[in-house]
Model the fold of this input.
Amino acid sequence: MFKKLIVIFFVNIFCCQFGLANIEIKARTAILQDFLSGEILYEKEPDLSIYPASMTKIMTSIIAFDLIKSGDLKLDEKFIISEKAWRLSTAGYSSMFVMIGDEVSVKNLLKGIIIASGNDACIALAEGIAGTEEEFSIMMTSKAKEIGMQDTNFANSSGINDPDNYSTVRDIMKMSNYLIKEHPEYYKWFSEKKFTWDRTGGDPITQGNRNPLLYKSLGADGIKTGYLAVERYSLASSIERNGRRLVAVGSGFETKNDRSRQSAKLLTYGLTNFDLVEISKKDRPFDSVKVWLGKSNSVKVYTKQDIYKTIKKGQKKKLKAKVIYEGPIEAPIKKDQILAKLKIIYDQEQVGEYELLAFKGVKKVNIFSRLMKSLNYLIWGDV
Done:
């Protein structure tokens, strides 16, 4: 009566004439990821240790955003500027230009960090949250480990020269993913092109965002530049187009122009050589499986997670989704009961396997109905 049932779906995607290109990115280390599928589309020495410079400020922002989300910090809360913070606004560093004794809101400090890349704002925020920058750095490193950044240590909040402030482009990518996924409302600030600080005792100061990709027609919406003499130029960047997002991180670009052009080249490569395919959305019906002796003859099934796959352009015939189960499945069935497996096949190789769960419960029919169904099966082979 029961047999393994396999239902094959050919996943429909948009195809075009572009073929897969081989590219070389002029950077010491780089990585490109399709955000929703998590697939790596390009990498060059992605685990090479780097000094992240001002890309460090992504984590500084994340710590604040997490606290705001939990209710432990408010955007209108104000912190008093210390001498240590002020000194970084007078020493030739990227600055928001705060003054000693100023009371500056968390929102302004965050925008000063994100848009103006203010090192002074980083210290002010760190001291306001943790008491000292050293304690704040411990929070940063702890958060890094929590989100899977295994090759990272933060020694300060700004990324200023320190041999103990190190990471990799892979880890910076993970950090960027966390920012975009967990704090989409604040991530929008990374795309703002200018910030005006209505400072105390002087005319307002307007500064532009240092991310060069924001000023190109590419459509980038973040994330953060970096520069240290020992590391040269770096950039964590992201673009969203037609619901698809790419995240790129590169370090060791020789010039500002290289940083801009090579990062744009990397993102364009991802857009023009690959397609993102939506397979399943979490908690939404994906398909139905047959039910035996139930008040319904079938039940819808779903996946617990969103499932996306990235494939080369023009390869739709190579992508299939298979629903596999021993069925029909005998009632009763409980809601969220695991009923089947979803296997994703690309170019004759399995590239993913996921559980399919019952979208709702199915009760067993009464004894009379069970007898009739059994009789029908014996006579007609019909369940």
Notes: The longest strand covers residues 232-241.
